Amino acid sequence: MESAPLTEEQENELWNEFAIQDYYVDCVDAYLDAAAAICSVDSQGVAEPAAADSQGDDQTAGADTSETTEASGSNTQEAGSAIPQERQLPLLVDDAGLLTEEEADALLDKLEEISERQECEVAVVTVDSLEGKTSQDYADDFYDYNGYGYGKDDDGILLLISMEDRDYAITTYGFGITAFTDAGLQYVVNDFKPALSGGRYGDAFNDFADCCDKFLTQAHTGEPYDGDNMPKGTVHPVYIPISLAIGFLISLLIGRSKSAKLKSVRKKESAADYQVAGSMRLYQNSDVLVASNVTSRVVSSSSGSSSGGSSTHTSSSGRSHGGTSGKF
């Protein structure tokens, strides 16, 4: 059976779904979803010829078809403005198998809790190979084409780990670019990289999640961590008296060790006892300047331009991302 041509209303619907999207990939997805919905309606709306159809039955069938078309149009609008379900991946994708089942479950729970509370997605992805891409490009594309990002602005940050050549990359988008400046990203990397390099992947990913939580909390105050404004390290109170006691003990041992070597030293009653009679006669006293040393340094003004903030680049989908990459 030949299919009927598209009506003017259906053509307008296809064009509207295509035109309202911001990026090419979203335009194509919206167009295909709308076309599939229209074809589905057409196939459902074709009635088999019956031996005895009354005019009332024809009117009833027409009403049903109209209702079906209207409902399908509503669903098409939702599909056109959202990412298809098969492209929405979880916040933890451990394709390289670096975590145990228990570690993965606990980490996923943490990532989901942080993302929901901060309203900015925090994700971790591990792969065996970059498939010929750079680590930064792979991270950007994985974020763009798999449905990551919180809310209408797709706010988020994603850590990618590739085991092939031990690459890492972080990509940020939306509010993630604001929350994680270039200096901030370097701080985050320095926080989780030691555990990552040591093969303690569970610890590394938890360090990453906790650090992201801290940075997002600060960014919501309106002053993201950047430049000289970075998280300060904290010392547990129990270590303070322990450190003092250890320092005192070491100084006491050093002092006793040195005093034990002074066998020839005896206590004198006055300063004159240390002078040999007639050994020194002072005839003239004068001060002579024999040398001078001047040290200078440049003091930079605090009112100068700042080199902080976030640099961005364009991904293959045409979107602007922040991020950083390297080896571990």
From TrEMBL:
<feature type="compositionally biased region" description="Polar residues">
    <location>
        <begin position="62"/>
        <end position="79"/>
    </location>
</feature>
<keyword id="KW-0472">Membrane</keyword>
<keyword id="KW-0812">Transmembrane</keyword>
<feature type="region of interest" description="Disordered">
    <location>
        <begin position="49"/>
        <end position="86"/>
    </location>
</feature>
<keyword id="KW-1133">Transmembrane helix</keyword>
<feature type="region of interest" description="Disordered">
    <location>
        <begin position="299"/>
        <end position="328"/>
    </location>
</feature>
<dbReference type="Pfam" id="PF04536">
    <property type="entry name" value="TPM_phosphatase"/>
</dbReference>
<feature type="compositionally biased region" description="Low complexity">
    <location>
        <begin position="299"/>
        <end position="319"/>
    </location>
</feature>
<protein>
    <submittedName>
        <fullName>TPM domain-containing protein</fullName>
    </submittedName>
</protein>
<dbReference type="InterPro" id="IPR007621">
    <property type="entry name" value="TPM_dom"/>
</dbReference>
<feature type="domain" description="TPM">
    <location>
        <begin position="93"/>
        <end position="210"/>
    </location>
</feature>
<feature type="transmembrane region" description="Helical">
    <location>
        <begin position="238"/>
        <end position="255"/>
    </location>
</feature>
